[in-house]
Amino acid sequence: MTSTGLARVTLFLITLCGDVIDALAAPNPRTLGSDLTILTHNDLYAATLVLGAWQPHDKAQTTCEQLSEDLWEPDNSTDFGFLMYLKYSHTSEKPGLYWIGGRALCSQSAVLSFPEKDDTSEKWQVAVNAGTASILGSRDKLSFRFRGIKYAAEPQRFTYSKYKEPDGNISALTYGSGCINTYCGTTLDCREDCLFLNIWTPTLPAKKSAKKKAVMF
Q: Among 1, 33, 125, 161, which residue has the fewest nearby CB atoms (within 10 Å)?
């Protein structure tokens, strides 16, 4: 193998190991022992991270810190009407009080993401388990985001694709390649290997539930 080939293999291994470490280090609903929900007011200004598990104050504070946040400290101008959703949705294990600055409300300091401003740095990263896979994503102000998840191997031309179950540590921080279309080469990176799934969700459950949320494609 040439020195160039060795360099490429080494770079690939370094990148792969980095993704594995990130996926293991990122906060995960299972390891945190709590559902995570981003709750946002309709005006998109007020927002909080809801920890669904019943827990003491010090544990709630620690969990918020693991998410790079603090216990929520609303100011006098905050409209608390959007918190009524907690009663309607039964987001937490059982009704009661929340710890702010049983369950807890953490601050939500992540900002809205835009194509030209998309911060997926370690501070905003979060991981979920799916079967034997650990998938690394991120959050912004409105949702947890998992992008570029490969769901099928590249099919031969004019054949059907076959589902590929996720496995191992997967980085879902960026979009996958787009399929061939008229925008290729200008605003979009296109390839025939383009079967990727992008997921946005306001809630990450800590445990599997028979009651599923609606999914829109």
A: 1
